[in-house]
């Protein structure tokens, strides 16, 4: 969409595709070019999807409604349709060679899990490597948005660190973009933090009971306003847009935890986390108080210009966050709570060396939350009576799993064997099919928040608050909430932080996955924005070019330079007359590095010139 829009602008520069197009009616030409570009890319992307016939029919119908003939496939000529088709061809070519392995269905033949699968129908687990990811084995499996999945998980996107990024660059000595360093290891550096993190997840699981009588204030006056990477903020004293305090928003803690876990899990309509942030951006723009002023000042942009700039910068940041996060997941290959909690519990407890079931590699005990089952506690009327016969094992007082009828029932909280602990998820999903560290939700969300803050010129949502209401009974994992509940965020950062913390309520991540994930996402978002604006104003053409000369063989040297995707470069040589002459015609950069072999001893004066087109 951006490249098709930029083709009709004299300043903006496209990313995958660059050309200058003209029209007597630029507004109509842009709309048509964007429609053809989007249609071709969407058609290709969804052609092999689960519901391809439905999706393709929707796309065809939309083109017809807009008055465009989907059968115009030409890439020749100056018509808007041809421009759009050329843009789509460039984008699809980009995707076929960007390291994603699209041509082999995004497979990765180089990754193999070190641990055998955890069989969910059995208690406990066995780990060859106690700090490494373990796939799950299901009787029936689904993805988070309800599609059928492999019964034994395969690490999704384990090669994604090899995908060509937008603004990411590895610094000297780095192997991971924005490397947060290793997570804590059980039996190694960070052993106590490892155990405490799992205790925290169990504690969040215990917060999911709407009948526990605990009420909390979830207004922006009570929560949010966190420093980057933690949850120590205590909200805002006033709404800076109104000058008034935020009204309290008192809700049941059990309703809040369940709503947060489900709202952020995959988006209200299964958009997935990156799509969820596009939905939030769209909802913000649609609000009555929103003004389309780039970075918060100047003239309002027309709706189309705002949209394409917003989508370009936002999704560039999300793209880079995926690359950085998934490469971190691949390198550290870190365990998920479903495996670590079960493993710790089956070792025993690590709090009381003189007590029963002690093991230094076990789980810490917490009164009324994590306890050893005893002959006394299992007597009639005892707190662990329902676990009689399991004396000596570890019990946790948590959400016990999906009820028999999720549409009418909810599970609350109950003492459960820790060896069969489950996160607050559907029992056909349980945990995503990739390693934990760092959290994708945390990275995606903070990256998006950084872009939206800079795009709008304000960290606060229009009016100083943004809301989303869950109606009573709207939850899907079980019946709930017990009454209507309104989520509220003052800033984009507050919403992003809630997305990160939602994965603790959902039992998907330990805290160490969340905080460093937010920090990585912040860096991705800031860098992506800083680069995106250079495409907006055309200053990308003025970026310094680092030219290097090296000898290839006697009488032959190689010129090489850093190249930006979608731009054109030509090499010039200094002549005796004092001017530079073209040695090559302008050619489009297909990779991050351009090069040219030149006959000579390297004593000449050369330069590389960047242009937006040939």
Features:
four-stranded antiparallel beta sheet, three-stranded antiparallel beta sheet, single chain, alpha+beta
3D architecture notes:
The protein is 33% helix and 12% strand. It is of the alpha+beta class and 614 residues long. The strands form 6 sheets. Strands 12, 13, 14 and 16 form a 4-stranded antiparallel β-sheet that branches. Strands 5-6-7 form a 3-stranded antiparallel β-sheet. Strands 10-11-15 form a 3-stranded antiparallel β-sheet, with no helix packed on it. α2 (26-46) packs antiparallel against α3 (52-66), α5 (191-206) packs across α9 (337-347) and α10 (440-456) packs parallel to α12 (511-536). The two termini are 21 Å apart. 43% of the residues are buried.
Order of helices and strands: HHHHEEHEEHHHHEEEHEEHHEEEEEEE
Summarize model confidence as the mean pLDDT: 93
- N-to-C terminal Cα separation, in Å? 21 Å
| Helical content class | 25-40%
Q: Which word captures the global form?
A: globular
The main pleated sheet reads as: 4 strands, antiparallel
What portion of residues belong to β-strands?
5-15%
The number of E-state strands comes to: 16
Low-confidence stretches: none
């Amino acid at each position: 969409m951006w490249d098709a829009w930029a083709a009709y602008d004299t300043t903006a520069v496209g990313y995958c595709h660059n050309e200058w197009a003209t029209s007597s009616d630029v507004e109509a030409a842009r709309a048509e070019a964007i429609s053809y570009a989007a249609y071709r890319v969407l058609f290709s992307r969804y052609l092999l999807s689960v519901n391809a016939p439905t999706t393709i029919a929707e796309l065809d119908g939309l083109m017809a409604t807009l008055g465009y003939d989907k059968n115009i496939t030409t890439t020749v000529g100056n018509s808007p349709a041809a421009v759009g088709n050329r843009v789509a061809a460039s984008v699809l070519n980009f995707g076929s060679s960007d390291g994603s392995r699209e041509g082999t269905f995004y497979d990765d033949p180089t990754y193999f899990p070190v641990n055998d699968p955890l069989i969910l129908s059995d208690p406990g687990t066995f780990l060859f490597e106690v700090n490494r990811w373990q796939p799950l084995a299901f009787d029936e499996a689904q993805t988070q948005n309800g599609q059928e999945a492999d019964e034994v998980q395969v690490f999704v996107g384990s090669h994604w660190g090899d995908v060509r990024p937008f603004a990411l660059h590895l610094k000297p000595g780095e192997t991971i973009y924005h490397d947060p360093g290793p997570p804590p290891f059980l039996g190694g550096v960070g052993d106590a933090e490892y155990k405490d993190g799992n205790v925290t997840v169990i504690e969040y699981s215990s917060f999911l009971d709407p009948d526990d009588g605990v009420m909390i204030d979830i207004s922006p006056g009570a929560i949010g306003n966190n420093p980057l990477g933690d949850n120590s903020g205590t909200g805002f004293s006033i709404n800076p847009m109104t000058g008034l305090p935020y009204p309290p928003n008192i809700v049941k803690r059990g309703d809040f935890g369940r709503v947060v876990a489900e709202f952020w899990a995959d988006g209200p309509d299964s958009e997935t986390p990156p799509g969820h942030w596009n939905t939030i951006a769209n909802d913000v723009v649609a609000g009555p108080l929103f003004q389309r002023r780039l970075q918060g000042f100047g003239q309002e942009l027309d709706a189309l210009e705002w949209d394409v700039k917003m989508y370009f910068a936002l999704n560039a940041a999300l793209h880079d966050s995926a690359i950085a996060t998934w490469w971190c997941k691949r390198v550290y290959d870190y365990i998920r709570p479903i495996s670590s909690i079960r493993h710790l519990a089956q070792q025993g407890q690590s709090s009381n060396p003189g007590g029963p079931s002690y093991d230094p590699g076990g789980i810490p005990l917490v009164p009324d939350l994590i306890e050893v089952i005893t002959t006394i506690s299992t007597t009639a009327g005892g707190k662990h009576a329902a676990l009689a016969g399991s004396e000596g094992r570890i019990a946790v007082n948590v959400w016990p799993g999906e009820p028999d009828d999720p549409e009418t029932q909810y599970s609350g909280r109950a003492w459960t064997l820790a060896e069969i602990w489950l996160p607050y998820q559907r029992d056909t999903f349980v945990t995503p099919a990739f390693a934990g560290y760092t959290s994708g939700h945390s990275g995606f969300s903070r990256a998006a928040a950084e872009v939206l803050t800079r795009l709008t010129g304000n960290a606060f949502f229009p009016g100083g608050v943004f809301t989303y209401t869950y109606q009573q009974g709207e939850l899907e994992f079980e019946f709930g909430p017990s009454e209507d509940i309104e989520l509220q965020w003052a800033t984009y950062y507050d919403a992003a932080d809630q997305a990160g913390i939602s994965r603790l309520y959902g039992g998907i991540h330990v805290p160490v996955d969340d905080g460093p994930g937010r920090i990585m996402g912040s860096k991705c978002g800031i860098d992506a924005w800083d680069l995106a604006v250079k495409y907006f104003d055309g200053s990308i053409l003025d970026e310094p070019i680092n030219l290097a000369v090296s000898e290839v063989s006697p009488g032959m040297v190689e010129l090489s330079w850093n190249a930006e995707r979608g731009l054109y470069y030509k090499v010039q040589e200094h002549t005796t007359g004092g001017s530079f002459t073209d040695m090559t015609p302008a050619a489009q950069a297909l990779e991050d590095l351009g090069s040219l072999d030149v006959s000579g001893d390297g004593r000449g004066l050369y330069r590389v010139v960047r242009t937006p087109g040939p």
